[in-house]
Amino acid sequence: PETWMLNNMNDHTPFSFTVQFLDGQFDNPYAGGQNFNVFPFAGDFDPKTPYHLPLQVDVLEHQFKLPYTQNWNLTVERKLAADWWLRVGYVGTSTAHPMIGVDQNAPIYNFNQPLSQNQNTIDQRRPRPEYENIYTMAIPLDQQYNGLDVLINKQFSHGLRTNRFD
Fold this sequence. Notes:
- The chain is mainly beta.
- It has two helices and six strands, in the order αββββαββ.
- Helix content is about 10%, strand content about 35%.
- The strands form two sheets. Strands 1-5-4 form a three-stranded mixed beta sheet. A three-stranded antiparallel beta sheet has the order 2-3-6, with no helix packed on it.
- Strand 2 and strand 3 form a beta hairpin.
- The longest helix is centred in the N-terminal third of the chain and has 8 residues, at about 1-10.
């Protein structure tokens, strides 16, 4: 998780050499970012480097715990009669703290507008419009699986045989 955070941090101003203009098109690639001049780049991180707004942020949950998984199983087999067998098996797995990314600043969908208008007003519908995404790497969930396998087996009888081929 820490590596994920450090890798993503260099995608944002002022640590990044990349600037994204999502409103631009081929004939006007800097549409929406005319006041944000990144050229010429001097090769240093100037403290006066302007932040591209809205700003995207990546954060870790306050008490971040590393995820782990446990697996277990038990199988019991018993002969019931001369040619009957019973096998009962239990399988379990538990995952604690699986990681998910949560956008804490997701736009609120306006059901009174058509989809195309919602797509054009994404940043205006965010709870904190000065930010784009606020991605939080969180661990709010746990996962468990429990399984029971039951097998009753009868051996062939009355002159029937099985042949094993290797």
